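Hey there, shall we discuss this one?
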Amino acid sequence: MPAPTLLPWTFRDIEAFGAAPHRAAHLLHEQPMFTDDALADLLDRLPREAVHPYTMGTDASTTGEWRRGETTDLPGKELLEVVGRGRLWLNLVGVSRYDAALAGLVADAYAEIGTLVPGFDPLEIKATLLISSPTAMVYYHADNQPNLLWHLRGRKRAYVYPRAERFASRADLEKVVAGASTEGLPYDAGFDAHAEVLDLEPGQVAWWPQNCPHRVENLDGMNVSLSTEHWTPASVRRERVWTANHHLRERLGRGARSTREDGVLAAGKVAAMRVGRKAGLLRTGEQQALRPSFRIDPDVASGVGRL
């Protein structure tokens, strides 16, 4: 018998895949691995260095308030209780390396995308499980590689902005792609008039073009989402072209004029990045990590305690 579908996508969904901000349906949320008990068990099984705690302020414009917490040894059930009432965001990084069932679910979902989207054959896939408080947010930023946000529990809202100079300057985006800065970008509330707003309920997946600036707000309930990142030949080529432009800007004092991702010039940049990376001279696609500045404290209402 054929495997049951996880993606009841329409032709419009398939046509929009990776090309525009879009929301489609999925059935991953029906799996038993996302209940409280299953999540608590997963947290207890994971190496705690894979559980990255964050906290944030209440104003989307104060991006400096995005802070990383130190590793916690709280039992999974207690940690979920603190997240459910506090102001925390947990990134369970590389979670599919530690949980076979979740790894299989991600593999099945991507295999199904491959049957639906002509030519889609990613070189690599990574998964991060997100568990976050009811009013948590992620500030304005851009990701290096394309990703999918599979929403599983709670209600979430994503604001996606045009990939244009007004919303992310070329120099700032080059730094993000090259790993010379964190993913954060300067934000202006006036940008919201130009955002595509994607409200997500359990059983919906969102995506947008590679490097599009975006931010996320939780609206209700403890939120659980699966963020998957994938590399394709086209996305890697874009990364290397923009990384090359960053290094040219740093060394020559001015930005490269061309951001074309095809042609002889682009091929030369891609080749230079490949050589530089193999020689250990260049770092590409690795974001700078924040230093821990708080600890999770179950005796504090927000869950955010002093180190």
